[in-house]
Amino acid sequence: MKTADIMGVRFHAVTLNEAVDCAMNRIHIKKKGYIVTPNPEIVYLTLDDPFFRSLINGAALVLPDGIGIIYAARILGQALYGRVTGIDFADLLMHRMAQEQLRLFLLGAKPGVAEQAAENLQKKHPGLIISGCRDGYFKDAQEAVNAVNAAGGAEVVFVCLGAPKQEQFMAEWADKLDATLLCGLGGSLDVFAGTVKRAPAVFSKLGLEWLYRLYKEPWRFRRMLKLPLFLLLAIRQRVFSKRKEGSS
Ligand code: UDP
User: Is the C or the N end of the chain the one with fewer CB within 10 Å?
Assistant: First the structure.
């Protein structure tokens, strides 16, 4: 599979369909692993944290979530097909899982959110089996592992604890979980439960989902400042590598 290096993070150059095919294939052959969907904020976090970066790069699939990653790829001359957001990936994966009546466990978000998401998702994807839910505010990760395993396990677990908690959890506990595939999906359960609305299609078409999110959740302002910083870093990296090429 082709990859693109964005500031040390190795993204897979796949379309949404290819990403879901790859996930389904791993489920069929029972190959354990985890999937991550980094946005610019997460790549930014990896810059000062090589351990976190190694967790991201250790994933079976690293999907570019966010227009900022695509802009950075263009600036750095790296090939990515386009955005594959966590929500779109999860949605198509559940559609395919429902056709085969596969099991999904929902882990994360505030108490009650995963249950509401489960109700909505079961209506949207008849055939999908939600084997269980657990909120993301556990004291000890073992509690979460026990919840998944006590529910009889699942082919897929959506791990929605925010970064870097979800990536640490997936890397550390994958072997102990009775599940094939773990997907780190940030705030997706809030969207599936309807507590947070996704941007209208026109915003995502224009690559302005971040603007909608800022309007809805203005307290994200400080976190979002990382987006322009991230693009400036990409430009700087490009300029330096050009200079290096020129001098060698
Ligand atoms: N969360 C959680 N456990 C924690 C911290 C956060 O389950 O200890 C949940 C939080 O309730 C939210 C999600 O993780 O549902 C993180 O959402 P955020 O929007 O910050 O993530 P993003 O999509 O931006 O990565």
Answer: C
User: E strands within 75-210?
Assistant: 103-108, 129-134, 154-160, 179-184
E strands of the chain, at which residues? Answer: 3-6, 9-12, 33-36, 61-62, 103-108, 129-134, 154-160, 179-184
Domain count for the chain = 1
- Distance in angstroms (rounded) separating the CA atoms of residues 93 and 80: 21
Residues 185 and 169 sit within 8 Å (Cβ to Cβ): no
Whole-number CA gyration radius for the chain: 18
| Spatial distance between the Cα atoms of 189 and 194, rounded to a whole number of angstroms | 8
The finding on whether 91 has its CB within 6 A of some atom of ligand 1 is no
CA angle centred on 201, ends 183 and 166, rounded to 5°: 20
For residue 66 the two structure tokens come to 């966010």
Which residue's CA is the closest to the ligand 1 atom numbered 14? 161
Query: Which pTM does this prediction carry?
Result: 0.93
Let me know if residue 94 belongs to a domain: yes
Residue with tokens 């990859």: 3
Question: Residue 163: CB within 6 Å of ligand 1?
Answer: yes
Domain-located, residue 14: no
Q: List beta partners, residue 156.
A: 104, 181
Q: Tell me the per-residue pLDDT of 166-225, one tens digit each, with 9 for 90 and over.
A: 999 999 999 999 999 999 999 999 999 999 888 888 888 887 888 888 888 888 777 778
Residue 110 exposure: Cα atoms within 13 Å on the Cβ side: 5
CA–CA distances in Å: residue 4 to residues 35, 76, 148, 160, 187: 16, 9, 34, 25, 25
Domain presence at residue 117: yes
**Pocket probe mutation, ligand 1, options 88, 158, 161, 196, max atoms within 8 Å of Cβ:** 161
